[in-house]
From TrEMBL:
GO molecular function: ATP binding; protein kinase activity
Span of domain Protein kinase: 417-741
Superkingdom classification of source: Eukaryota
Name of the protein this chain belongs to: Protein kinase domain-containing protein
Database matches in InterPro entries: Kinase-like_dom_sf, Prot_kinase_dom
Species assigned in the record: Amniculicola lignicola CBS 123094
Length: 741
């Protein structure tokens, strides 16, 4: 339960402080009639300019057709709004704005009916269409500049806010476009509050205070009305400029920490808690975190006290070494909890924020140690015949092992394919291609696509399609974020290009204007990268490989061009200039970009497979590919692919990260030099010993050397023991370096 609360809270609150806004996206739909008798077009253009240029919202205009012979207005309106909601309001932290300028009156049953002209002409039943808005996942703001604007039917909204600003009450008129019109005055007020933001209720209050709208001359006008149609929140939604996300690499060290203790009368509701913290936080609050680590630690202690190693328990079926490691981690957790209690009870340290933060850090490390010990044991030491029983084990659930065990079971069981994930090619629209990766859209949603070619022979094509179907099934299964693999959506076959394409859901912060960039490209583009960023990148890649290998998944293609980052592209805001000056402004050749080195994404799954599957012994004599391969895998491989070969490839990448240049530049071979597989490894290890201790320190150097000679350190060891070598001598040592950065 606490895991769901934490994830829901973090997903909502982190996006708020990243964008400093309630919303990750805001889309507006401005509706009018293609032919009308009030001419609102200029005011709509002005409103659109403010929303797009000042607020950075995505705006779409919709003209309801008046020639029903060719396009039914009711059908067109329903289809457009349904599509708009589906594409723009599929997240809780999104806002859609529906604006209408035109006529509105009551039909024979007294319900809202929009019309193109005051007398006669086409009409649409707004009371029917508006019910679609109650199905939006995110927040909804309805702005109606028409007579009888407040004539709206009630409904029930499952999630999010639904608020309305109506230009007039039922039975009253609103001014036509001009100096006193609702839209003109509202647009001006929005322009004044771009930086500070304004709530929907406050915006309506300002309109009420405007004498042009509420003056005595407007005797036929009922002043604007605000209404909360959902009543799901105590606060009104905020209209505010969408700022680019802050650069996560350069978070300032907090000047102080404030620990808040909250007493709850019932189970916590994560979204209510997140909405509470997002309500007008001070500008100097940069982050809010919810900690469930104490609850998790207490649950672990309760489980450990219930004889989890009793003769009939699942853990009694583990090896003695695995049981000893789990017991050791549980004892460490008990010690940490006891020390934490002493510090909390000690008046000298109980109120000190840094002491509390340090206590939480040590507690989190102890909880992680227990989770790691249980996961490694269950995944690598437990006999497969107990997997079905293990999936429902409470201890495995508390230690976040069940999901990984389910993934491993799918990988080792060649017959398990949950469902066919094939996507129709006609549903996919390619937006742009960046080397092997493509950015596209499926049903209006952004996706990242990895494509690789296939041979069009009947036997090979059938086998290749079965392989990609199985790979897609694995990629679509739930995985921990430490895998550094984007969630899979499915795959499609592009017969025209002779490609199979794996489809991934992009990160939540990914936008259409963003690009992706590989690690190999960054070596030349980013000339200087701080050592702490490089060590964190190295640790992230090691953590990802540890996750893969624990579930019996070998990558087989670890190279820097398969390590990818989102390249955030933020255009600079230029000051407004006159037409004469604008002709002198030089067009920028490139825009400033932001790459977060702590969040690499793994691709290159063309050859990825379960560790026990038959290996591919195809020949490849390309030096560009072979330098990343274990010496036994050069040219025509004579041995099956092992996990140690992945570790060797990782070692070469870590070596590149340490030098911050590609491996061919490090080797610096001349055309006349004789190159051999073992010679390359020896030269890489020699260069590491000679240069790296001074450049990156002894720990990072030792990790690289171990990876390059990994097969020598695991001879005669079991799968569980082999993974233990990697965790203790690679992962843990780099983790300690990142903690002290």
């Amino acid at each position: 339960m606490e895991a769901d609360v934490v994830e829901t809270f973090r997903d909502s609150i982190n996006q708020y402080f990243l964008h400093r806004s309630d919303y990750v996206s805001v889309h507006a739909l401005l509706i009018s009639w293609s032919e009308n008798d009030i001419s609102p077009e200029q005011e709509i253009r002005n409103l659109r300019r403010v929303l797009e240029a000042d607020y950075q919202y995505q705006v779409t205009a919709l003209s309801i057709p008046t020639n029903g012979q060719f396009d039914d207005p009711q059908l067109r309106l329903n289809v457009e709004i349904s599509s708009f909601i589906e594409c723009s309001s599929h997240r809780r932290d999104s806002l859609i704005i529906i604006y209408y300028a035109g006529h509105c009156s009551a039909d024979k049953a007294g319900r809202a009916q929009w019309s193109a002209f005051e007398e006669g002409g086409p009409t649409v039943c707004w009371h029917v269409t508006q019910q679609l808005l109650f199905h939006a996942v995110g927040d909804v703001l309805l702005i109606l500049d028409c007579c009888n604007a407040a004539m709206i039917a009630k409904g029930v909204k499952g999630s999010g806010r639904f608020e309305m600003i109506a230009a007039s009450a039922k039975g009253f008129k609103t001014p036509v476009p001009g100096r006193s019109s609702f839209t003109k005055i509202m647009t001006r007020e929005l322009g004044r509050h771009t930086e500070s933001g304004i709530s929907a209720s406050s915006l309506c209050s300002l309109l009420l205070e405007n004498e042009r709208m509420t003056g005595h001359t407007n005797t036929s006008t009922e002043t604007p009305i605000y209404d909360d149609l959902a009543r799901t929140s105590r606060t009104s939604l905020i209209l505010k400029r969408l700022e680019p996300p802050s650069d996560p690499r350069f978070k300032k060290k907090p000047a102080s920490l404030l620990m808040i203790r909250i007493s709850l009368s019932d189970d916590i509701n994560a979204m209510e808690m997140a909405d509470w913290f997002k309500t007008a936080p001070p500008r100097n609050v940069t982050a809010v975190e919810i900690e469930a680590v104490v609850t998790k630690a207490i649950r672990m202690q309760e489980l450990s006290s219930k004889e989890i190693f009793s003769p009939r328990s699942l853990f009694s079926k583990l090896s003695a070494a695995a049981q000893d490691e789990i017991r050791r981690q549980f004892r460490g957790l008990d010690t940490t909890m006891a020390n934490a209690k002493k510090e909390i009870d000690d008046p000298a340290t109980a109120g000190d924020a840094w002491t509390v933060q340090d206590t939480f850090s040590r507690l989190d490390e102890s909880v992680s140690g227990v989770c790691s010990a249980v996961q490694s044991s269950a995944l690598l030491d437990l006999d497969r015949k107990y997997y079905e029983e293990a999936i429902d084990d409470l201890t495995l659930d508390v230690t976040d092992t069940s999901t990984a065990l389910s993934l491993r079971n799918a990988l080792v069981n060649t017959q398990v394919i949950s469902e066919d994930q094939e996507i129709g090619r006609d549903r996919v629209r390619i937006v742009k291609t960046i080397q092997r990766l493509k950015i596209g859209k499926i049903d209006g949603h952004m996706v990242i696509i990895e494509a690789y070619r296939y041979w069009e022979t009947v036997d090979k094509l059938a086998a290749a399609k079965q392989q990609v179907r199985r790979l897609s099934d694995i990629l679509c299964r739930p995985k921990h974020v430490d895998f550094h693999i984007l969630p899979g959506i499915g795959f499609f076959q592009d017969k025209a290009e002779k490609e199979f394409c794996l489809v991934f859901e992009p990160p939540v912060y990914f936008e259409e204007k963003d690009d992706v960039v590989s690690l190999s490209e960054l070596y030349t583009r980013e000339k200087l990268v701080a050592l702490d960023h490089r060590i964190q990148l190295a640790y992230s890649l090691c953590r990802a490989l540890d996750c893969l290998h624990k579930v019996a998944w070998v990558h087989k293609g670890l190279r820097p061009d398969n390590v990818v980052f989102v390249d955030k592209c933020h255009p600079p805001r230029l000051p407004e200039v006159s037409k004469e000056m604008s002709s002198r402004v030089r067009t920028l050749d490139s825009l400033p970009s932001v790459v977060d080195f702590t969040t690499p994404l793994l691709f290159g799954f063309e050859y990825a497979r379960p560790g026990h599957d038959p290996t591919n012994l195809e020949e490849d004599y390309s030096l560009e590919n072979n330098v990343y391969r274990h010496p036994n895998r050069w040219g025509r491989p004579t041995v099956r692919f092992e996990k140690s070969h992945d570790v060797y490839s990782l070692g070469v990448i870590l070596l590149e990260i340490a030098f911050w240049k590609d491996v061919k530049s490090i080797l610096d071979y001349k055309k006349t030099d004789r190159i051999s597989a073992t010679g390359v490894r020896e030269k890489l290890m020699k260069r590491s010993r000679e240069r790296l201790p001074h450049m990156v320190g002894k720990v990072f150097t030792d990790v690289i050397l171990l990876c390059l000679s990994y097969d020598e350190h695991i001879i005669g060891k079991s799968e569980y023991e082999i993974q233990g070598v990697f965790q203790q001598r690679v992962l843990d040592r780099l983790k300690n370096k990142t903690v002290h950065i």
